[in-house]
């Protein structure tokens, strides 16, 4: 598999995990836990975007 394909798969997994955390945050009754889960979901989503951007280039920057 290409590096772009691996990055895309990893980004997809991170987005899925972020969505699961967001859903868990909605179910959480403790406000602090809810905020912690939402923050972690947001960070994972941002990281998945970076992974996706990194893998989408056609030219190797090296």
Account of the 3D structure:
The protein is an all-alpha fold. 81% of the residues lie in helices and 0% in strands. The longest helix is centred in the first third of the chain and has 25 residues. The radius of gyration is 14 Å and the shape is elongated.
Main features:
single chain, 62 residues, mainly alpha, 2 helices
SSE topology sketch:
Blueprint: H1 3-27, H2 31-55
Shape from CA axes?
A: elongated
Structural class designation: mainly alpha
Strand residue content: under 5%
In whole angstroms, how far apart are the ends? Answer: 19 Å
Residue runs with pLDDT of under 50 for 5 or more positions: none
Helix and strand string, N-terminal first?
A: HH
The biggest beta sheet is recorded as:
none
Residues in helix, %: over 70%
**How big is the Rg?**
14 Å
Total helical segments: 2
Number of strands: 0
Mean pLDDT: 84
Kindly summarize this structure in a few lines:
By secondary structure, this protein is mainly alpha-helical. Helix content is 81%, strand content 0%.
